[in-house]
Queue: 2 jobs
Job 1
Amino acid sequence: SLSEGAPFPAWGRFEPEMVPGVAPGLNGIFAEWLDRVLALLLELPSTLLFQQSLLQLSFFYAERPETDAFWLLHAPPSLPSSSEAWALVEPAAGRFADPPDLCPKGPRRLVIPVPQDASAAEVVAWRAVLEEHAPAWSTLWVVTAPSHVQALLRLSEGERDAGHPALLWRRFEPRDHDALVAALCSFGQAAWLADFLGAPNASTAATTESGADAGGGGRGGGGGAVVEAAVAAAEVLQRMAVAPAEGDLRPGAWPRGFRPARALPDEGAWPAEGLSAYLEAHAAFREALRRGEHMPESRVLIYTCTSMTFCGGHGDRLNGMLSAAVVALLAGRHFFIDSQRPVPLALVLQPAALDWQLSGTLAALPASFNLNDNLAGFEADPRRVLDSQASVLRFVSNQRLTPAALRARPQQAKALGFLPRARLHSHLFRLLFRPSVALQRRLDDRGLPEGPLIGLHFRAGDQMPQHWKDPPRHALEELHEFLDCAARVEASLGWSNAHLILFADTDLVLELPRVKELMASGKLTWPAQTDSLVHLDRSPATLTVRGLLRVWADWWTLAFDADALVLSHSGFGATALEMGPERPAFLGKGCVPAEGSTG
């Protein structure tokens, strides 16, 4: 598996171009290039040691065919050709319950995306003022930060009980607000957007007619200036709703960031004609690589994950790979993946419609971009990557770059069928990946219960220090809120025979009396074993090979088999929501409706 796939393009193996980067001036350019050389010198011996460890583990488990580690390390990775088309097959109609209607109710709908860096006090102040001074509007607050969720929950409780979701949770902050509204509201349900709190979408910013910042307050909390600005904006909104004056018809008179959401055209067929042509060209290029042909006119982008790069867990890793694919296609580059950590990716996921396997990135020095934990850098200048003239790019990222890339290349995105496409990442995942033999064997052995299945993902974070170190997420006692939410979901959907399947990052949940009772009654299933509680990027290799297939099977169950979801504030469950089909989903703490579109 370390050497499977197309060989690394020989003409891009050593491409010591020095391109302008973040650091200014010639000294900065040289420093970035020297960092690449030093990283290579460190990466080579580190990777060799890492591969030696995998080889030792392979020998150890060769005599233990009953283990998942044996199948992971020794099973042939390829599936029979009959499953080649899995990536393009949609779930059968009626397989999943319809997701709840998340569009604000009433004739005047207002969607407010809340940026993560807004203070909770500021958010609460705006919410209280709008509720009092602009009651004619049905408002939906889209939040990502846990502090915002908790601050607004009490204010929203009555509305949620009445069937009006005043709160909506997303794990990833929305960047394309028009696409968000299009994903929430069906055609004909006109809605307005409010960016009072200064969302990252600069295109939505506006000022009042006088030029004053009607939504001011910065990040200073809910002080008098914030309340005063909120009251002024709310009064304008209320007047526009019930008795608009002539001046209210001018966009310049609207409060800052207030505008109608732009209607988007139909998504069209998938894959689009432009994407189909790309797949054909990619297949031809791959065959030419196998034959050793010299094609310096072709350009390539390789997503790379090695022993020296922080690739992240399920959420970061999937966001990194799918965003890299979007960047590659928008830039007209052939996309490949060379991911060796914690094991070669092809041991778990095989190529589907696009064969991305490539080997040989190690000990090469192509042009390189490392965007780990640097979303702001990419959003500030996406063309630095998209317009690069290097023939081969080595691409490292654990960030969600897709929305910024789509904004930078709208025409190419439309030609590929990426815009508009509310669930673009879901489509791309199915285009790129299918289970390996080892993962499919684990999936076939799950023995999922009959009837509707409610998947719960609970992430404590810091309760398995012997397996990995992670910051705390949810206290164990908060699992009761998750179970209460699951019961509420079951009742609201009219399911009398639903089963709960619990995935958690700690077996301490099994000590809770309520969990023991539900398991004894057969209502709740705990499919994990202690060995399977691993983190893709933080657990040691000796532990990872034992639990990797199970943790991927857990994610797969949440993504493609659970009929409804109750999730933690974690990328593991959030990407399962996003990659799988649309169905009811909720943040467990507070039972807040959740949404998983790409924007």
Note: Residues 80-89, 158-164, 199-220 have pLDDT under 50 and may be disordered.
Job 2
Amino acid sequence: GIHLYYKLQHHHPPYYAADARKRRGDDDDRVVAITNSNRIIIGLECFIIEFGILVVPMVLVQTSLLPYFIGPTVLLVGMLALAQLSSLLPTSLPLPLPPFTKTTTPVIPNQTTPNKQQQNDGHHHPHPQRRLRIPSLSIHRACVYLLTTIAILAVDFPLFPRRFCKTEEVGYGWMDLGAASFIVIAGWTSALSSSSSSSSSSFDACVETVGNKDTGGGGSSIMTLTRKAMKKCTPLLLIGLVRLATNKGLEYQEHISEYGVHWNFFFTLCCVEGLAVAWKGVRGRWGIVATTGTSKVPLPLDGILALGMMIPYQFLLSKGGLQEFIENGDRRCDAETALSFAVTYVPSLCDMFVANREGILGVVGYFSLRLLSEDIARVCLLPTTTRGGESNEYAVGIASNAPMKHRLCIVSAVLWTAHLCVTIIFRIPNSRRSTNAPFVLWSLSHNTSLLCMIQHVMDRVPTTTTTTTTLENNTQQQHAPRILEAVNRFGLAVFLSSNILTGLVNLTVDTLHSSNAKAMSILSVYLALVCGFALLLDRLFEKKKVD
């Protein structure tokens, strides 16, 4: 779908842009003049085209309408063929979606605006403090949000294949990747945000930021870290409590084998974010580099900590009986269990832990997943060189001079190899319920491979007027499609709205006995509302958007 979208955009410039050029008498495609009378019509036309190209295929691949590998393969071949024949389509299409404002400010890579701290210090640093923008990552994150949005409602219909559901014990399920993908993306964006806030993407700047007490890095005070953790964790905790109250109050159907009796994914996110903030404080105080001669070689402390947690955790799962306890243990403590001491002293806490063991113990695996994701982002997503000619030391030994897609490909191959070794040689089955080592490696492999494919597609598509300048070699890349950009920007709001709509559909429609036609109609309206809500938020907060 992404490939077809950019092909259509390249071969068929939007007619509203052509009309605007004709009226102005120039060739500037960045300023689009659209009257109020045709703005809604053009926007609706573009929304239908983008929705059909990008969202509808995501729905089809998650239904029984495309059985097994044959259906998705036919859909893929058909869309690739349509992309190759795109030059034969009508001469103008309303792509991309017209901007809400009359001007679109391009990214200026050489802009040097001192930040507040720099002004206070009286020094002007050569690199601006801004966000490192990677369009392929925006598309990947939006796709994860949309695929999850589709799955949480489609799973209630007979149209949804049962093999895609979350696994009860061991194995692989399509829906198992949803929560893990959120954690992976959080790790990637966290690493990029740290790099951007350091005023440079070089390794030296990363060291300076983490150790600087005035930038909120690792050397920050306990109060600063506490405020940062509260800012991140409080919304997630409140959302988790609201979800718990509504599920129990409305007696909404839920599977306790997913996270436990009272736990949900928002509580897991809350714990992971809090631990991530605490770890950054510890990492900054203890240092993050090892010096070899005159060069600085970064220690992947995130990955080291992740391995330090996962190895003993996996040993307890495989040899200590923890996996058996998670899968078949009782939901209440008794004197005959290994937790008998807790029954005597803290019975309520013991019962709470046993009842929610999947969610509580799963924090170990998800936090390890988050840490590994941050190290992968530093290796694969940060630019290979800065404008000052400095190299990305994190990528030393892993094709440090290679483009992003090549680094992603190498890391994907390493991760898939590690996953196969753990599952085949060590015979450890993949388990979402315990978030064991194979599950962590599988989630990383899948997301890294998907991002690699998206980056490969975007590198192959010729650039058009809708481009953005990246920090790596000042190359030009496409902007994400408007729908995906809006979903990416307001992912949490989109996810919450989709959960609310899913609950309303389940309360008003007998989903278990719905026909395929009725299910597809409901899913289409549901997704149109979700995407429309994302675009509405993008419109309302257009002035606050940061490139």
Note: The radius of gyration is 25 Å.
